[in-house]
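Support case: user asked for a sample of complex input and structure output to validate their parser. Sending the pair below.
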Amino acid sequence: MAKSEKINFSTPSGFPEFLPGEKRLEVYLLDTIRKVYESYGFTPIETPAVERLEVLQAKGNQGDNIIYGINPILPPNRQAEKDKAGETGSEARALKFDQTVPLAAYIARHLNDLSFPFARYQMDLVFRGERAKDGRFRQFRQCDIDVVGRRELSLFYDAQMPAIIAEIFDAINIGDFLIRINNRKVLTGFFSSVGVEAEKIKSCIGIIDTLEKVGEAKVIQEFEKEGVLAEQTQKIIDFINIKGSVDEVLDKLKYLAQSAQEAEIFNLGVTELETVISGVRNLGVAENRFCLDLSIARGLDYYTGTVYETSLVGHEALGSICSGGRYEELVGVFLGEKMPGVGISIGLTRLMSRLLKAGILNPLAATPTQVIVVNVQEDLMPVYLNVSQTLRKAGINVVTNFEQRPLGKQFQQAEKQGIQFCVIIGSEEAAAQKAALKDLKTREQIEVPLENLAEAIKQRLAP
Amino acid sequence: MAKSEKINFSTPSGFPEFLPGEKRLEVYLLDTIRKVYESYGFTPIETPAVERLEVLQAKGNQGDNIIYGINPILPPNRQAEKDKAGETGSEARALKFDQTVPLAAYIARHLNDLSFPFARYQMDLVFRGERAKDGRFRQFRQCDIDVVGRRELSLFYDAQMPAIIAEIFDAINIGDFLIRINNRKVLTGFFSSVGVEAEKIKSCIGIIDTLEKVGEAKVIQEFEKEGVLAEQTQKIIDFINIKGSVDEVLDKLKYLAQSAQEAEIFNLGVTELETVISGVRNLGVAENRFCLDLSIARGLDYYTGTVYETSLVGHEALGSICSGGRYEELVGVFLGEKMPGVGISIGLTRLMSRLLKAGILNPLAATPTQVIVVNVQEDLMPVYLNVSQTLRKAGINVVTNFEQRPLGKQFQQAEKQGIQFCVIIGSEEAAAQKAALKDLKTREQIEVPLENLAEAIKQRLAP
């Protein structure tokens, strides 16, 4: 067979692909995340990978993202159809770059078929034409939840988010993490109370958001550029540096709120934070899993209340492993209706790839196979097939070895793939309706009657 | 909030989107299919949605498919980067239109990290720029398995495919189905034995493939156009119409093989079919689930041996619900190595959408929620949150109602969403550490101590 020598068959830069053991890890993480999301009543949806370009650009004109447009390429034998196939202009379509604008479109498309508050999860691939840097992908999977109300949405939904984050990261067992909670109204209100002009507040919040990356000196510079007075900057820096236990920080905020009663928005933010924290506690989130951190701002424009980031303790350089917040004017964009929402997002592709690199997560075995029925002699194949089916019916993942190879080789390959058991049946065993069961982990080998084989394996399977 | 009046927020034509109950059905089908695939040791992989265009065109030059190319669209504030962002020519990229060429590329990319025979499943979205007709999508999910060998691959892998198909369609409970098995070598060999020239055989197989759609008269016409003699055509028509039990058809084939011993390829095909059928039987596939059907040809060029189609009995117009076959020269295309494979594909998006339309499948409930903790009085919220968490820890999917609404409304909404249970706790119940548990299906309401609530619900949950 001739090799197509000139074809560069590598993946395009930024479009990741995983080995089987890594993909199995992703499937496990997706299952774990899904289970937690569903336990809080979030229902799955999936919006198309492709939307009308004008939909994707509806909110904030695609922000800073490079969108991938799509254009039909006809096969050589159908070039004549070219005119008909080209869909451009108002028909221009592109790949989605996040799941927020598509959620808004989904709600607009199905408004009368949905129940509100509408709590959905979505774990689709999204696409951004960014230059592919270390850990930055052009295709990646985000695991988002949002709950969206019509007109109103209880703050207890904000309180559930840290409970959900904590359950997920406890379940996937990646060590200590800390959910850092803040409220945009607290920041906005405080900025306003120290005299920052209303129109500068959004960019000031953007500057605060860069604090961990660029450091305090650079933040002070940026404030200066923005025209914030040195005295105001100092007050802001002191404010976002307030440290202490959740109750200590809350007490300081309440004290500030009392002494600045004219700052309505600040006071509202403090009350919201208090409610959210009491909900988080009622939901049983461990005290060491969350904190109030007034320096958390989130870069995105649309947040209006509670905001969250999550750090992996000892690995803060990884950045936030789960973030989100409350917004008011995002989801109703296509309907002209106020639809407040709160949501979080786990950037799974990036997170997994970084945790693998840091050795915090490891790939699973390269195959789901738990048992290999080895091929001792070809004429026993009917027995091997039959035994394999019996084990499968008992819920065990089985490969029957069809290739005839020395037994040692068959054990070796099973072990290399991380398979725990080999079932060995020669003519003697077949006649006696027995099998030898070899545990490749413990090196133990026992004889088991065929009728008890499934049970014997299930008892010994590593959890 | 202003409505973006001019935006057409509908999905682009051919890009499907499902309501929550339909998406939940898809998730259930994917889980079921995955479980069966994994029970035979198939391991998950996912190749990027985007490949280099030259990779997608490597085999058969994209066939008849319209591929979607992708091109970066810069945000207005970054137009200056235009030159750098454009990636065209040898860097041209496009969305994958099937999972076969990407599998070949995956194997080429990771050859030394994979174990052979390499058995993988893949359930990714693929994209084709076809005109969107009824039931035809431009974005759809295919659930494929293939097992690929280096140089050789046992025919028992071919025998496993009908076992896998049967298990999946038995599990999803869509009624009677029939797996129709044939072998391309039998067809090729027979065509050759009646005197059809070698170079016409592929198109003749293509014509046979259209039989069910266009009928016998049209097939005879097409053979005539192809220059096949009427006498040859008659023999072919008689041949593909051979009917009977599996053993009857096999016997006829063996008889034909004996009387035409010079037709090596035919005889090889018959031997292969025999081996495959004996494997299918050893795997315990019920006799009413499969047949030999000599009119099954499969349109795709690359099949070289066993081929499969699956009909839903009584709904044959739906077309094949699972198809596949054996191929020799497909997967090694990037390596210049012979890598025989055998695989099947379930076109899940199309299948599900057609089964929903035909009423053979129904959407699931719109939410995974099993229990609503209703909101009787706001000041008991700490109790509601605590009870909800206890139920979740027991593996139950729970929504706490944060909105204060009349109880009747709360029951109504729960029922509308298909939620089975309401937990009702007023101040009396809270004081007595009890709850009222209302089953919305049976209308039964009982009192349960809070400590037994999870158990009581789990016992009563519909399976």
